[in-house]
# Entry
Amino acid sequence: MPNIDSRELILSRIRKAKTMHLPQIPAQPEQNASVFHPITESEATCFKKELELVSGKCEICPTEAVMAKKIHHFITDSAIDKLFCRDNAIIEFLQKNKIPYTNDEAEFTTMQAAITSCEFLVARTGTVVVSSAGNSGRQLMVFPPIHLVIATKKRLVPYLSDAITALQHQYGDNFPSLVSFVSGPSRTADIEKTLVLGAHGPKQLQVFLHNE
# Structure
């Protein structure tokens, strides 16, 4: 058998493969099949469980007053001096409950934590849906080391498709320029498959969910 170098051997196999025709099997998508398991518990419990599976945290509070106490405890335990906030409704809540905060843009780059609202909470995936439509803008969902989110149970939806439908209904033709689906703290495992939290965003995501 004559000697054939590796390059020619590879090219000959490619030429041979190009002459072969395998039968085409048409795709048969299951249009009505659900991607996710059904929710068998309350949406709040499901959200908390799913968020904590991806290293986020969730406090379910019966009232807004209890939520305020839990936020006080959180910032004390985390040695946070004050929360950065741009949302006027949340600032009113912080002032009412004597929770230290700042909205001074000169302190933006040195903030320890920021607090925002959200568009929706997706129960099945533990996802926080945020957008650029509110006063918090784009920055507060990605820049602070710790991201606190407050929401009522009215913001809970079962699945991602429900959140998308609700956003379309809410904004219509005036859709936000940015919508983010946040499932837990920022993470990467690019380097030696070692999971690192906070690689491209907050190291901690803490949700406070209340009934009122």
